Automatic annotation (TrEMBL):
Molecular functions (GO terms): oxidoreductase activity
InterPro entries named in the record: AhpC/TSA (IPR000866), Peroxiredoxin_AhpC-typ (IPR024706), Thioredoxin-like_sf (IPR036249), Thioredoxin_domain (IPR013766), Tpx_Peroxidase_subfamily (IPR050455)
Residues of the active site: 28
The keyword Oxidoreductase appears for this protein: yes
The organism's taxonomic lineage, starting at the top: Archaea, Methanobacteriati, Methanobacteriota, Stenosarchaea group, Halobacteria
Residue ranges crossing the lipid bilayer per the database entry: none
Domain Thioredoxin: 1-138
PROSITE patterns reported in the protein's UniProt record: THIOREDOXIN_2 (PS51352)
Name of the featured protein: Redoxin domain-containing protein
Claim: Oxidoreductase is one of the keywords in the record: yes
Pfam family, one: AhpC-TSA
SUPFAM superfamilies named in the record: Thioredoxin-like (SSF52833)
Domain of life: Archaea
Sorted UniProt keywords: Oxidoreductase, Redox-active center
Length: 140
């Protein structure tokens, strides 16, 4: 396990951050596996994809092993990354977890694309994310 640094990740170009509520739930498993399969398309754009949740590092490692996830999953457990991007649930029984969202961050640290789920069982349009990554990379 290594500590995640957005600044370090941005040193090589734009990044994609995909926030999700939690591993091993039915919907998140579907989303993370779809992103795993989509990651091959994104590889041509040379932008790393990071999954981000409030899960513990150990549960993330177990999930990655079980579902052959080849991109990093970042733990927002006991740090502020979920809140920093404004996707931390503030109320209710599920408070503290991340809402489903995707951000493209350009090398300067500016968020150039945002998608936030407005209802359950919705996922980002990967074509729109790819276009945003290409645009962020072109602006380097």
């Amino acid at each position: 396990m290594a500590e995640f640094s957005l600044a370090d990740a941005l040193a090589d170009g734009p990044v994609v951050l995909a926030f999700y509520p939690g591993v091993f739930s039915r919907t998140c498993t579907q989303e993370l596996c779809e992103l795993r399969d989509w990651k091959a398309d994104l590889a041509d754009l040379d932008a790393p994809l990071y999954g981000v949740s409030a899960d513990t590092p150990w549960s993330l490692l177990a999930f990655m092993d079980e579902h052959d996830i080849q991109y990093p999953l970042v733990s927002g457990f006991n740090n502020s990354v979920v809140a920093d991007f404004g996707v931390r649930r503030a109320e209710g029984i599920m408070r503290g977890i991340a809402n489903r969202a995707v951000f493209v961050v350009d090398p300067s640290g500016t968020v150039t694309y945002t998608w936030k789920a407005t209802e359950p069982l919705t996922f980002p349009d990967t074509d729109a994310v790819e276009a945003a990554v290409a645009e962020a990379a072109a602006g380097e």
